[in-house]
Design a protein that fits this description.
Elements lengths: L2 H29 L4 H10 L17 H14 L1 H20 L2 H12 L24 E5 L2 E5 L8 H4 L5
Antiparallel strand pairs: 1-2
Helix pairs in contact: 1-3, 3-4, 4-5
This protein binds flavin-adenine dinucleotide.
Flavin-adenine dinucleotide (FAD) binds next to helix 4.
């Protein structure tokens, strides 16, 4: 990835952050509102799933570009940057480990923020040490029974609603 492209993407993220995120940061902090409209806009601009390869429907940028975007979004409002980080994490896993069907059904909707998803690892006794996870998933007729408690899950309160 050329330095020129990295800086172009950084400048685009900087402008977006200055014009659309910083002005509403205080309001978001006070109201604890979930800014879905903002995320839809970011999805359209390609600010989610930054490292998803082009042949998987993403922009195919590198990790340095992702870090530059995260810096700019964080200057606007840290929680919005966390949303970008969350989607990067989930799309990276989908690209590496998802089935072809999961990629078709989920990947582009996650990148556009039409589908809201959460990454549910942390538990009271399992943060850094993921091998300490106690939650179980047991197959049953028509799905799975999940049994356990999670902590610190970004957008958990809205993600379970799925499509908005
Ligand atoms: C804003 C925010 C959003 C989050 N969102 C999510 C989310 O969406 N989904 C999710 O699953 N989790 C989420 N988390 C949880 C986050 O992933 C955990 O906080 C993180 O994994 C650390 O776990 P812990 O807080 O239990 O700290 P601990 O695991 O108890 O670690 C405490 C400290 O000990 C250090 N440490 C731990 N083990 C070792 C070791 N073996 N060697 C050396 N040092 C060690 C750690 O580096 C850290 O400094 C979020 C956390 C925050 C703050």
């Amino acid at each position: 990835m050329s330095r020129e492209i990295q800086l172009q993407v950084r400048d685009m993220a900087r402008s977006f952050s200055n014009e659309n995120i910083r002005p509403i940061a205080q309001e978001l902090d006070e109201s604890e509102k979930f800014p879905h409209e903002l995320y839809l806009q970011m999805g359209e601009l390609g600010l989610f799933g930054i490292c998803v390869p082009e042949d998987e429907g993403g922009p195919g940028f590198d990790t340095v570009t992702y870090a530059l975007v995260m810096e700019e979004l964080s200057r606007g409002y840290a929680s919005v940057a966390d949303q970008c980080g969350l989607i990067e994490l989930i799309t990276t896993l989908l690209v590496r480990h998802g089935t072809p069907q999961q990629k078709i059904e989920i990947l582009s909707d996650v990148m556009s923020a039409k589908k809201l998803v959460a990454y549910c690892i942390s538990e009271a006794e399992a943060g850094t040490d993921v091998s300490g996870i106690r939650t179980s998933a047991t197959k049953c007729d028509g799905g799975w029974i999940l049994n356990g408690f999670k902590f610190w899950i970004h957008i958990d309160a809205v993600a379970y609603q799925g499509f908005v």
